[in-house]
Amino acid sequence: MVDVEGLTPDEQLDLIGELWDRLSTTPAHVPLTDAQREEIDRRSNELDDDVRAGRPLGIPWEDVLRQLRSEAAIVCPTAAGRVFGATVGHRRRMLLEALPHRRRQLAERRDR
Description:
By secondary structure, the chain is mainly alpha-helical. Helices cover 71% and strands 0% of the residues. It has five helices and no strands.
């Protein structure tokens, strides 16, 4: 058993990442609430409707990358280039570390 209270925030984030990775290997074993199951069914039906109507599926990868890079640059311009290729836990830590920097920037703009 892991003593979560004794872990540092970085260790807790790493643990979350490890748990997520482990659960994602067997998604069928992850219990769903009725609301989650209904949402999955709704989205599946919506996808089927899109296929039948000949509408494009999803968002082009280039658009996703552009949006992520833009959001990362807003949080911390210097971290934007490093965010890609990092683990989920590492990306989260980088963004959390960037928040004080971003808050200072916003406060400076507000004070001008």
